[in-house]
């Protein structure tokens, strides 16, 4: 839902002539307004009011792929973004000659196929092509048919609309984290969760997580991913998502917190019981107390401080399988 102080498309067209800042993404540029951008982002405000080059030139380069930048601009002016269309960004484009109220539906169809070749030196920023390449290189699971998309005709073999939309929502969270805009970050999480609820595909979700891990600094996004992993643990194990040590290191604090929280809700008093291997317990032992063949976590909050540097071994996988059985009263084969 758009913010109360968002603009209409006709209003955006009207104020375009009063632009005092140019946003640059590759070969595209947009006539923006410092007041709107600085109101949302303290990072941009600092760049435009300090001794940085942006304050002198009134130009700012945004090192994300073009679809992400356009949806970012849409949010700044409209308070929302829609992956199926562009709104304010089309009007504010330097090449736009549209009349007030002109339709912009359908101009966002290149999402998932447009791959920006412009990458600046910031190692944090990734384009869609880099993220997808990372996920593809790490995948160890054979391709299966896509799920959750009603496309009529069979999709091309290299078409992954669910994964691509997950990636775009993820990049919206990434740009929100980069420019310190928590409202946009929360909106991206909400849209990601809703999209997965309506279009679940275990294969596409796992491919997305493989490629996207490390692309945002927003802990809330990883917490959301961890919740989904636990909700669909059978499939994520089937697709070997947790075989990836980097993913486990990123998600493990949230996974442990989720498990502990689930046990408390399930009536296991103030203690979450999980079995752990000797390999893992040697790393986590400082936070755990031995109770026969189990280990007890007395407070779920300590899970966020656990250094999970142990290698994700088969015995560790048994831990996850045991957790799944305890939470669902049924084993994973």
TrEMBL record:
Transmembrane segments: none
Highest taxon above the source species: Eukaryota
SUPFAM superfamilies xrefs: POZ domain (SSF54695)
CDD domains xrefs: BTB_POZ_ZBTB_KLHL-like
UniProt-listed SMART domains: BTB
Biased composition (Acidic residues): 140-150
Domain BTB: 19-85
Disordered as annotated region, ranges: 137-160
Name of the molecule in the record: BTB domain-containing protein
């Amino acid at each position: 839902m758009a913010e109360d102080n968002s603009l209409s498309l006709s209003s955006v067209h009207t104020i375009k002539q009063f632009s005092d800042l140019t946003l640059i993404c590759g070969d595209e540029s947009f006539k923006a307004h410092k007041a709107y951008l600085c109101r949302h982002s303290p990072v941009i405000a600092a760049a435009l009011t300090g001794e940085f080059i942006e304050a002198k030139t009134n130009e700012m380069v945004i090192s994300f792929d073009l679809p992400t930048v356009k949806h970012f601009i849409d949010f700044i002016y409209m308070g929302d973004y829609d992956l199926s269309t562009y709104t304010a960004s089309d009007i504010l484009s330097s090449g736009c000659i549209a009349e007030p109220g002109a339709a912009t539906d359908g101009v966002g169809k290149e999402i998932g196929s447009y791959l920006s070749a412009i990458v600046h030196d910031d190692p944090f920023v990734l384009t869609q092509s880099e993220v997808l390449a990372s996920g593809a290189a790490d995948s160890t699971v054979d391709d299966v048919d896509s799920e959750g998309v009603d496309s009529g005709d069979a999709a091309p073999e290299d078409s992954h609309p669910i994964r691509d939309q997950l990636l775009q929502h993820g990049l919206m969270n990434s740009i929100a984290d980069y420019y310190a805009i928590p409202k946009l970050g929360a909106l991206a999480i909400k849209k990601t969760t809703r999209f997965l609820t309506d279009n679940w595909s275990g294969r596409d979700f796992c491919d997305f997580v493989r490629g996207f891990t490390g692309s945002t600094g927003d802990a809330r996004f990883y917490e959301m991913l961890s919740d989904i992993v636990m909700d669909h643990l059978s499939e994520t194990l089937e697709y070997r998502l947790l075989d990836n040590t980097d993913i486990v290191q990123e998600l493990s604090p949230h996974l442990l917190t989720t498990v502990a929280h689930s046990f408390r809700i399930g009536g296991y008093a103030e203690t979450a019981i999980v079995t752990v291997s000797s390999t893992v317990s040697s790393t986590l032992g400082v936070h755990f107390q031995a109770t026969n063949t189990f280990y007890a976590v007395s407070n779920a909050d300590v899970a966020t401080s656990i250094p999970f540097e142990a290698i994700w071994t088969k015995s560790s996988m048994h831990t996850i399988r045991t957790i799944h059985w305890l939470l669902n009263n049924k084993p994973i084969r």
